UniProtKB/TrEMBL annotation:
Location in or out of the cell: Cytoplasm
Listed HAMAP family: XPRTase
Organism of derivation: Yanshouia hominis
GO molecular function: xanthine phosphoribosyltransferase activity
Record lineage: Bacteria, Bacillati, Bacillota, Clostridia, Eubacteriales
PANTHER family registered for this protein in UniProt: HYPOXANTHINE/GUANINE PHOSPHORIBOSYLTRANSFERASE, XANTHINE PHOSPHORIBOSYLTRANSFERASE
Family, as annotated: Belongs to the purine/pyrimidine phosphoribosyltransferase family. Xpt subfamily.
Transferase is among the record's keywords: yes
Main location: cytoplasm
UniProt keyword annotations, A-Z: Cytoplasm, Glycosyltransferase, Purine salvage, Transferase
Binding positions for xanthine per the UniProt entry: 20, 27, 157
EC number in record: 2.4.2.22
Protein name (Swiss-Prot/TrEMBL): Xanthine phosphoribosyltransferase
Length: 192
């Protein structure tokens, strides 16, 4: 998606530790017009897949998933919570997820009330690096008996193993911008 790549080149910052900082438009301050174009592109790529639920993980995926949902006949967005709360009562699906950015492991949960065998699910998230968050969400979809239509990722770090692992699992993975390499000196180089 050229619009996204241009925005990353213009406003993204490469930081030490393979961190691509895009907080001015994607995962802290959110550019809603850009999110609309992202949503339209996910819809184009997953056209005809019968998606009736969108699943993401808190926190950065929520805004993107909500805007994208408008283009999937207002499919409800369900997000996996990283911390148990008193307002989730009843049975839950659980999976362990290691966060690349935060450097810690979370037990993510989704209420069984919101995901089941009648659902055809699209997972949406902002980043794919090592694939841990996405694998956790895939585990939850499979545990629910729902059908996984695929995963839509805004930015994939193609030089890390997550995309290869997920594709190797037979999951349809659509990444809007795949970073081939990046450095503080050279900036970001995209695949394709």
């Amino acid at each position: 998606m050229e619009l996204l790549k241009q925005r990353i080149r213009r406003d993204g910052q490469v930081m030490a530790g393979n961190v691509l900082k895009v907080d001015s438009f994607l995962n802290h301050q959110m550019d809603i017009r850009l999110f609309g174009e992202i949503g339209k592109e996910f819809r184009r790529r997953f056209e005809g897949c019968g998606i009736n639920k969108i699943l993401t993980i808190e926190a950065s995926g929520i805004g993107i998933a909500c805007i994208a949902a408008q283009y999937f006949d207002d499919a409800p967005v369900v997000f996996a919570k990283k911390n148990p709360t008193k307002n989730i009562a009843g049975e839950v699906y659980t999976s362990k997820v290691e966060s690349f950015t935060h450097g810690r492991v979370y037990n993510v949960i989704v209420s069984k009330r919101f995901l089941g065998p009648e659902d055809r699910v699209l997972i949406i998230d902002d980043f794919l690096a090592n694939g841990c968050a996405l694998m956790g969400l895939i585990d939850i979809v499979r545990a629910s008996g729902a059908e996984l239509a695929g995963a839509g990722i805004v930015i994939e770090k193609g030089f890390q193993e997550g995309g290869r692992i997920i594709r190797g699992m037979g999951v349809r993975l659509e990444s809007l911008a795949i970073v081939e390499s990046m450095s503080e000196e050279g900036g970001v180089v995209f695949r394709g």
